[in-house]
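Write out a record, focusing on structure:
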Amino acid sequence: MIGETGCQTRFMESAETKTIEVVVNGERRRVPEGFCLDRLLVWLKIEPSRVAVERNLTIARKTDWHAIRIEAGDRLEIVWFVGGG
């Protein structure tokens, strides 16, 4: 299933899904092709409200995540916000 922005949604059929290789926090991962950054975080089971993301050495603005298409070879650094006192 393709959403309005052309990025696949979480409801797609995994048996039909092609994958690409990306690097997430230094670890090579195979992820579904066609995801935008916001969908990728959900697929990785990462709470989007608690992270900042760098894609290919550039900070990805949260307001743009829905439009940032993940491509083969992308390097993502995901940083969690930690509270404390």
Notes: The chain has one domain: 19-80. The mean pLDDT is 87. DSSP finds one helix and five strands in the chain.
